[in-house]
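We store amino acids, tokens; thus:
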Amino acid sequence: MLTDVEIAQQAKSYHIRDIAADLGLVEDDLAFYGKDKAKVSLDVLNRLADKPDGKLILVTAITPTPAGEGKTTTTVGLGDAIRKLGKSVCIAVREPSLGPCFGVKGGAAGGGYAQVIPMVDINLHFTGDFHAITTAHNLLAAMLDNHIHQGNALNIDVHTITWRRVMDMNERALRDIVIGLGGKANGMPRQSGFDITTASEIMALLCLATDRADLERRLANVVVALNKSGQPVTAKDLQASGAMAVVLKDALLPNLVQTLEHVPAFVHGGPFGNIAHGCNSVIATRMALKLADYVVTEAGFGSDLGAEKFFDIKCRIADLKPVTAVVVATIRALKMHGGVPLAGLTANNPSAVEMGIESLQKHIENVRNVGLEPIVAINKFPTDTPEEIETLSACCRKMGVQWALSDVWARGGEGGTDLAELVLKACKGESKFQPSYPLDLSIKEKVDTIARKFYGADGADFLPAALNQIKQIESLGFGNLPICIAKTQNSLSDDPKRFGRPINFKITVREAKVSAGAGFVVIYAGNIMTMPGLPKVPSATRIGMNADGEIYGLS
């Protein structure tokens, strides 16, 4: 059986100008990065401003398990399948991070015969967006420390500095460090650390920016510390935001590539799905909606994290109105949520499927919470049995939800036409989407609403430190921002060990922080890792290049 990278390398790609032409774009709209990828000018959005938007389809998933769900693979395969049915379609997904590629997760360009290509480039340096974001973030960090070294005219309280440094790699040794050692010439010693680039607020705000002016405004609003009077110190105060915008001038432009079946795909931006909103860029999504009749996009992790933030942050900020949401699951993952250990997932076990469907039911409810009717996609595995599939079918009928088997990993778009037909049928009506809470609620009320609606919790408990931080955030005028709850992706609750559909619990809010540039308040429920480490045997040990320059081992 061919690996993902082998399948991608054997594929014949079209010149990117031909993919662009399929969307109505001309060469003057493109900045070429070789023959198979290009950045698209923002002038396209201005030119097509009066054109009606296409239909927006979100792909989300159940709570992730080690068994795997295949959300990106389903997203890509659904786009291919919609094209096979003769429709104008475009895909919009996130860029992969180098850290997970070399760590344990692998790449994020789809899998099998449902991939975006060039797979190797997309999973590695691509068009340099992540490098630009890393540089812009660290430029602000350097200017902050230099300002303090040069006399601290802004009277910054160094004990309140929240702006760390970032790199696009898993490196646990840099999580907590002391900088400024070696004498007065090297700056003021203080505790700091590194996060991974996908956790940077610069990544989040670039993906939420609507144009260059909005990018500069968001950069200017980034809060790095407080002064000794308790007022925010921003990138604008440090006179850093203009230079940061220049560093990001090309990174703001969306990247156009193609699927294995030559469907146009925007791959742009990649914020974390828990510490940030976990979606591709607003600009890429808006552009896709102007260029195609149907746009398939995805959001990070399960519906409780990625989809909720897609609905309440991205759609609200960008005035997007999705028409339906596909909830991806596997029989294997449902059995795991039903209590079956990883080693026992290949055995026929319809009763475990039925128990695990309680988790799926909550994710279906989450989509309905915002006025949309979900469609369930079961990502097919060879070990799925007819009895297990019938059990799933009966449960879906009972829940009143439509579902389809998806075999896009093995068969490409042809394996997703049943799912595509359901999606196209759902797209015939007008969107009934509405965010799940109004912005004029207090921060605590918004957190409580999300916990109840999307996690199935009995509300939220707030530790004293978090209450003080929330009070300060509201006093500084940030209380009307949307909420971004950072919690584990491995459970609907804030306890990563609670599989299935937990009941009778509250989430515990430990910390709150404003991301004023991105435009949301981050609420921490649990210890969220913003700088991953490498596993005992990193994926990097299997990656290499042969004498002809072909990459192997990348997944």
